[in-house]
């Protein structure tokens, strides 16, 4: 009974305190509302300042690695294959591979006609950049003194090659007028824009602003490794193809045994199909062997180019400032 009385007294006490608080809040309502409103204003202002001052990645999505981006009017594409940043010295490396859409089976591009422009978001006042050709179809865009709090870097690839299809030689004034209208409506370059956000680049504490010679040699090593992997895959494919031929030849022997026991046209058809399959597989083996020979030739050419570079005899254009 005493416990219930004690509980009732506590409840009365709480109600009394709540009543006192209500009376106090009503008496000071204006001052309290002004205080609450001021608090909200302070929070909103602080949030705005924080968002404005604090560097952050761009709101635009980063260009994905190894994604061909068209640029110019001659079907060329550029792919960002690697992006590395050292926040300690502000060095950023962006590796690009250029492809000629009109000649898809060639690695040779007139790299001297490929240009880049760049802008940085919160990159700092000391940042500089340059475009460094590293092979007949690759370039590295280097930045140094880039702020470690940069938001994003935007690059645009440009092709300075002349597109003769876009050059008009009118035969009359009337054809010249119609040609001008057509050109204005149809002659648009592909954008060639790349966005590299800070949170999407790889990090390295050892990256430095290296010379063109070092970049060329490194690119040569990358190309040789890629060709060696190609040789390995084709070699494994040839082994698999040969096993497939063995299986087909074994099947033919079984079918021939069946023919000695019965004259079944379906069995003969199966033999013919197996022989056709062997012919197709041998063609695939021949293609794989050709791929291997081509890869070996590429390795030899790349090795020769590396040797020239090491001897200071690079044939590539010199770096150009952004």
TrEMBL record:
Domain of life per record: Bacteria
Q: From the record, give the transmembrane residue ranges.
A: 33-53
Key word Metal-binding present: no
Q: Which UniProt keywords apply?
A: Membrane, Transmembrane, Transmembrane helix
Regions of biased composition (Polar residues) lie at 299-311
Annotated stretches, region: Disordered: 167-191, 299-322
UniProt feature, compositional bias: Low complexity: 171-180
Q: What is this protein called?
A: Chromosome partition protein Smc
Top-level taxonomy: Bacteria, Bacillati, Bacillota, Bacilli, Lactobacillales
